[in-house]
């Protein structure tokens, strides 16, 4: 479902709230401890929500992103198109959009859509352009660590569904988690969190109000963490969303390492394909230049040949001796002497 919403963007991005509503939210957040809406002058937007998502904060967020309704093109997409389809290093997803509180709509300089797997190639930054740190915070909140690809979110303070499976798990500590997605709580968690990308695994700690949600790609986990912080599911809870300290999957680390290699290979293949395309275009241009040069050279040779033949024909028509020289030669021609008989013949004498 997320892919359909992500690709169907042939419309301008919607303004999620007004500037007045955003100012009210910021004013309210600045007067409360731990709302995570402090204005960051460096990024010209709210800073990541790093300071206000502590466990003690139980205030429900006043806004929530709706991908199906809010996603659309912005000025950031125009920049991507202008760069011949390549993604600019400074094009990131809008943090306000993820939290459902961007008042700019299509005028926003950031993307209003779900991120793609390779949206941000720099492991030192998240999809919102924020710098990662060397390690996680003590409470596993914040932007995250650049030393680890974390696709799993810890989701706390869930109001679980009371069902037969819930009561059975509570009575039997050996069955205190659900990896199969069979409990109502697992289905609720998956339904809400799947809006932000493809989910690979959901584990619910039954009776403890805790779930672990593992996405297929880290970019979607980053988006979901901001989108679901202080939100509710089907009941009147206020979620506490963090990075998971450990991957709940038994083969999680090996699968992540394999995926990193796959992503790296795809990235390298894309770069090489771009280089090959560029080289092919350069070869084609060089070939056209050589053909054009050959045509020019052939035309030059033809012109030289034409002039040569004209010169040869012109020399053939030109007399070897001038008219004056010929007359001089005629004057030098010896005259034959006449005899006496020839003189007599002139007088009609026999």
TrEMBL record:
Its main location: nucleus. The keyword Ribonucleoprotein does not apply. GO terms for molecular function: pre-mRNA binding; U6 snRNA binding; zinc ion binding. Residues 254-284 form a coiled coil. One of its GO terms (biological process) is mRNA processing. It is found in: Nucleus. Transmembrane segments: none annotated. The keyword Cell cycle applies. Residues 88-115 form the C3H1-type domain. SUPFAM superfamilies: CCCH zinc finger, RNA-binding domain, RBD. InterPro entries: Cwc2/Slt11 (IPR039171), Cwc2_RRM (IPR034181), Nucleotide-bd_a/b_plait_sf (IPR012677), RBD_domain_sf (IPR035979), RRM_dom (IPR000504), Torus (IPR032297), Znf_CCCH (IPR000571), Znf_CCCH_sf (IPR036855). GO terms for cellular component: Prp19 complex; U2-type catalytic step 1 spliceosome; U2-type catalytic step 2 spliceosome. Residues 151-246 form the RRM domain. Keywords: Cell cycle, Coiled coil, Metal-binding, mRNA processing, mRNA splicing, Nucleus, RNA-binding, Spliceosome, Zinc, Zinc-finger. A zinc finger (C3H1-type) spans 88-115. It comes from the Eukaryota. Belongs to the RRM CWC2 family. PANTHER family: PRE-MRNA-SPLICING FACTOR CWC2, PRE-MRNA-SPLICING FACTOR RBM22. This is Pre-mRNA-splicing factor.
């Amino acid at each position: 479902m997320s892919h359909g919403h992500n690709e169907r963007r042939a419309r301008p991005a919607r303004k999620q709230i007004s500037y007045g509503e955003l100012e009210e939210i910021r004013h309210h957040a600045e007067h409360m401890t731990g709302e995570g809406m402090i204005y960051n002058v460096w990024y010209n937007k709210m800073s990541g929500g790093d300071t206000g998502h502590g466990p003690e904060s139980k205030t429900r967020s006043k806004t929530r992103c709706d991908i199906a309704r809010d996603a659309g093109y912005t000025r950031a997409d125009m920049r991507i198109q202008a760069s011949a389809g390549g993604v600019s290093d400074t094009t990131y997803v809008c943090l306000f959009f993820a939290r459902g509180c961007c008042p700019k709509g299509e005028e926003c300089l950031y993307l209003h859509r779900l991120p793609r797997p390779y949206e941000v190639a720099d492991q030192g930054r998240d999809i919102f352009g924020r710098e990662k740190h060397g390690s996680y915070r003590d409470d596993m909140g914040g932007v995250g660590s650049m030393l680890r690809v974390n696709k799993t979110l810890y989701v706390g303070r869930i109001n679980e569904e009371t069902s037969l499976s819930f009561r059975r798990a509570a009575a039997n500590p050996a069955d205190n988690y659900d990896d199969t997605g069979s409990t109502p709580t697992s289905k609720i968690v998956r339904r809400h969190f799947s809006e932000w990308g493809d989910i690979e695994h959901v584990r619910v700690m039954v009776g403890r109000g805790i779930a672990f949600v593992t996405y297929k790609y880290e970019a979607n986990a980053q988006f979901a963490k901001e989108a679901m912080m202080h939100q509710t599911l089907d009941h009147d809870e206020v979620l506490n969303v963090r990075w998971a300290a450990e991957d709940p999957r038994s083969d999680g680390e090996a699968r992540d390492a394999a995926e990193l290699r796959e992503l790296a290979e795809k990235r390298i293949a894309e770069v090489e394909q771009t280089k090959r395309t560029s080289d092919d275009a350069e070869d084609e241009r060089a070939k056209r230049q050589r053909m054009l040069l050959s045509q020019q050279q052939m035309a030059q040779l033809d012109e030289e040949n034409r002039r040569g033949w004209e010169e040869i024909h012109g020399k053939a028509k030109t007399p070897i001796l001038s008219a004056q020289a010929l007359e001089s030669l005629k004057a030098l021609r010896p005259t034959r002497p006449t005899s006496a008989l020839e003189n007599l013949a002139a007088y009609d004498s026999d």
